[in-house]
Amino acid sequence: MVILDNQMTTPGWCCSRTDGNGFFGDKYFDPEEWLKGLSAMATMFRDTKNVVGMSLRNELRGPYQNVSLWYRYMQQGAEAVHAANPNVLVILSGLDFDNSLSFLSPKQVKLSFTGKLVFEQHWYGFSDGTDWENWNQNDACGVAVESIRTKGLFLLQQGWPLFFSEIGFDMSGTHIADNRYLTCFLSVAAEMDLDWAVWALEGSYYIREGILAYDETYGLLTWDWYTARNPSFIERINSLQSPFQGLNFTYLCITT
């Protein structure tokens, strides 16, 4: 299965708060152009059966972000995709690099369609600051889980589909903070039967941020894309690839 994801307007590495791609009305983010692009992509893949969803915009962020414009344009974007392709899932991301959907707790989106809306949330070890390095592992996990619950996980309790479209960590196995984060994530994913996507598959890049043959330490594959960078992680996620409560899917994020 494939989920189309609108990442950036200009070519480049994603992301920063000041790259001009962060939010509607930013230097390189024209909402009207974006809506036309969503319609074009939804139309292009309308008859491609393995394209099951469209994520409207990845990691909204920056000085221009605000809740009012989020509702305005994300609802328009959802309607544009639905009009062009009524069969594809419509996936909405939140604010602050897709770390927060908390504003949806008192006010849900209003759309003309039902039964195909999905929310996405991101969770990396660095999302929790220095807690994994400085706190007891159990305490850090408890605080992190409560944080992601208030920022987005509550949507599951309200009956809305939500998946973690980006989770990731240093695959070397030597990063203590990331190892603690991973243990916490795996326990939560197992308990709640979460759907999730690992960022990223690639082991390296032809060029990234001006560096040739850049090694992706978060990549599932080694630099040569030949073997698993961290075989123990592959073993650990095997138990999560079978559903505990219902249908369950595992995704891999590929950056192109």
TrEMBL record:
<dbReference type="Pfam" id="PF00150">
    <property type="entry name" value="Cellulase"/>
</dbReference>
<feature type="domain" description="Glycoside hydrolase family 5">
    <location>
        <begin position="28"/>
        <end position="202"/>
    </location>
</feature>
<dbReference type="InterPro" id="IPR001547">
    <property type="entry name" value="Glyco_hydro_5"/>
</dbReference>
<keyword id="KW-0378">Hydrolase</keyword>
<dbReference type="GO" id="GO:0004553">
    <property type="term" value="F:hydrolase activity, hydrolyzing O-glycosyl compounds"/>
</dbReference>
<dbReference type="InterPro" id="IPR017853">
    <property type="entry name" value="GH"/>
</dbReference>
<protein>
    <recommendedName>
        <fullName>Glycoside hydrolase family 5 domain-containing protein</fullName>
    </recommendedName>
</protein>
<comment type="similarity">
    <text>Belongs to the glycosyl hydrolase 5 (cellulase A) family.</text>
</comment>
<keyword id="KW-0326">Glycosidase</keyword>
<dbReference type="GO" id="GO:0000272">
    <property type="term" value="P:polysaccharide catabolic process"/>
</dbReference>
